[in-house]
Specification:
Layout: E1 2-6, E2 11-15, E3 54-56, E4 70-74, E5 95-98, E6 101-107, H1 121-139, E7 146-153, E8 165-171, H2 176-192, H3 196-207, E9 211-215, E10 218-221, E11 232-236, H4 248-269, E12 274-282, E13 295-299, H5 306-311, H6 320-329
Antiparallel strand pairs: 1-2, 1-5, 3-4, 4-6, 6-8, 7-8, 7-12, 9-10, 10-11, 11-13, 12-13
Helix pairs in contact: 1-4, 4-6
Length: 332
Amino acid sequence: MEFRFDPLRRYWVVISPKRAWRPNDFETQHRDIGDPAACPFCEGNEAETPPEVLAVRPDGSAPDGPGWSVRVVPNLFPAFIGEPGADPRPPGAYRAAPARGYHEVIIEHTRHDTELADYSAEHALLVLRALRERVRAIARDSAVRDLLLFRNTGPRAGASLRHPHTQLVAMHEVPRTIETELAGIREHRRATGRCLLCDLAAVEMQEGTRVLERAGSFASYLPYAGRIPCEIFVAPVAHPPPFADLSDADLADFSALLLGAIRRLRGAFRDPPYNFLLHALVRSDELPDGHHWRAEILPRRGQFGGFELGTGMFINSLPPEEAVLRLRAAAP
């Protein structure tokens, strides 16, 4: 496994042979394991996964057996392996470095066929606490530069198993999307002396035309230049503490907005597949406190085509000012 750098298009690619053996690769139809007895994430099948690194066990049951509510295990088909920190190879025409990092699965529920939108507030908070605990633990590794939490819901969004789960990847390279954001943050700070993300959140809260809901120090809203119809941010409205340091009260507010956004999306657009993304840790030597974490919800109602692949641009056919009205009308 290794990172490879494209010197022309200026991005890193992960070459990870183990990922080729995921259950749905090269299949034209989604492989949905409908029988819980055959699902490695279902309660009672703990021997089908690597040993757990964290579990919420209300009954005090033994590790790697039944009795859990939320369970975290290393990914059986990792994009990264081992601990970060290996030195890159000497530069030449091409650059490469070992793809070392963390790749874990947060198994969110014992029920095979449940959806995030159906979680109780209490269970959603259990899941977020487990995510916070793993972010907190991995953040102690100073070699980690970026930690991404992501959830693929539905086969068109890339889900290979139906059982509800989130993935965590932590790596010692900062991805291009975040490098681009950091460059914008630096430019804005040089020009104004202020935080770009704080300023953007302030504009959204002042205008209100794209805001879904507010809860405590968080808000859900549709970004001004959303890439796809009904892209939703669930984000702090002021400069936040690191995700790992959020209080239980802040997590509860964030969880309520997240559940509300997912439920509105389901009600307004017939339960579309979606991706959930959260860069929970970004380290930058130049801007140690300069990047806000935020959750992004990206419905997948269409496929990316040649225009998107050829330009890196997106065509959004539903302006966020219109989409937010349909979402507001749907029950949370």
